[in-house]
What we know:
It is a single chain. This protein is an all-alpha fold. It is 65% helix and 0% strand. The chain has 5 helices and no strands. The chain has helices at 3-19, 23-44, 54-61, 69-78, 94-106. Helix 1 runs antiparallel to helix 2 and helix 2 (23-44) crosses helix 3. The protein is globular. 28% of the residues are buried.
Amino acid sequence: MNFQKQIEQEFALAEQARARGNEGQARVCARRAAGIAIREYLTRRGIRPPSASAYDLLNLLKDDPLLSPDLKRLADHLTLRVTEEFKLPIEADLLAEARQLCDALLK
């Protein structure tokens, strides 16, 4: 399966999880979609992705000197830890932000 289909599959799973009220699973799927896009972004730049972990790749992306501050902020949001109540410490729609990050990295 190509990377674009993998990304869309993860976003479909994220939307299904959100519809069931499982926001935690939706965030996991959004991160996985971002990880797929980051691997493709790095590969296109001739860089071998150093990890298969979406979380590790998001952290790597935050230090990319070629990325805009806005894209680094999106990557940062996708690595935030939830509170003890399983809520994000900020107001953000991580599915929308992951889509925005994927679109920017792959254009």
